[in-house]
Design goal:
- The chain has about 270 residues and is an all-alpha fold.
- It has a single domain, classed as MetI-like (MetI-like fold, Orthogonal Bundle).
- The chain is built from eleven helices and no strands.
Length: about 270
């Protein structure tokens, strides 16, 4: 039997279903991007092409302050979460496949399976019991805990696909453990570390529930600020902000894909 018999693209209606699928996914995003260039303040009424709402969004002081808070929290949380995830992945990849190993991996990934509202309430109660009052510190620690499992998954996957022969060869050449890690292991898993960091960064920038629960004066993140704008009504300025976020996400995703493709070519 030829390979064409199993080609799903030859099934009746496959092309139509593919088109409908991608329209379902991306048509709302296309509408947001399109109406961000609407000259009229009423989103549903198109009166002409204009970029004034992008200028208005970039000149919005409150928006820029919220963006600065989000970027500050995301950078610090991503750095901490990636380091913690890297340490956890290194330990678990070297541990024997026993019950404790499996339990530890489940514990690391448990926040991914829990509703975020439950984690946010638990973090809020914990900080209250510890007496932590600094809003920026609370937000950063909460995001770090929230992002760690997302950074862990790509790093763990990269370590699973890496042969330990390189590390053993470095140790046979009398390289200290840290030198072997820095000169051999880390360059090999760098694409996974980078992918985990980018995923953690995007999740931190996108997080709303935890940020809203821990929101206090001077720590309003961009998603919380956008939610406050939505309650007043959708405007082309809000569409412009959303379009800029989409563009930033595409840039980050493209960089991550290029790094992953480069690592795959190097491994071949």
């Amino acid at each position: 039997m030829s390979d064409h018999a199993h080609d799903i693209r030859r099934y009746p209606g496959a092309r139509l279903l593919t088109v409908v699928f991608f329209l379902w996914l991306y048509l709302p995003i296309a509408v947001v991007i399109g109406f961000s260039f609407n000259q009229n303040r009423l989103v549903s009424v198109w009166t002409g092409f204009s970029t004034e709402w992008y200028a208005a969004a970039l000149a919005n002081t409150a928006l820029m302050d919220a963006l600065q808070v989000s970027l500050t929290v995301a950078v610090i949380a991503t750095t901490g979460a990636t380091l913690i995830a890297l340490a956890a992945a290194m330990v678990l990849s070297r541990a024997p496949a026993k019950g404790v190993y499996r339990l530890s991996e489940v514990v690391v990934n448990l926040p991914l399976m829990l509703p975020e509202i439950v984690v946010a309430v638990a973090v809020l109660i914990l900080f209250s019991q510890l007496g932590i009052a600094n809003g920026m510190l609370k937000l950063t620690l909460a995001h770090m805990a929230f992002c760690t499992p997302f950074a862990f998954l790509p790093i763990r996957a990269r370590l699973q696909g890496m042969s330990r022969d390189f590390e053993e060869a470095a140790q046979d050449l009398y390289a200290p453990p840290f030198t072997a890690f820095r000169r051999v292991t880390l360059p090999l898993i760098a694409p996974g570390v980078f992918a985990g960091a980018m995923l953690a960064f995007v999740m931190s920038m996108d997080d709303f529930i935890t940020s809203n629960m821990l929101n206090s004066g001077g720590t309003t993140t961009l998603p919380v600020y956008i939610f406050a704008l939505i309650k007043r009504g959708t405007t082309p300025e809000l569409n412009a902000i959303s379009t800029l976020l989409i563009l930033a996400s595409l840039v980050i995703a493209t960089i991550a894909l290029l790094a992953s493709a480069r690592a795959m070519r190097r491994d071949i």
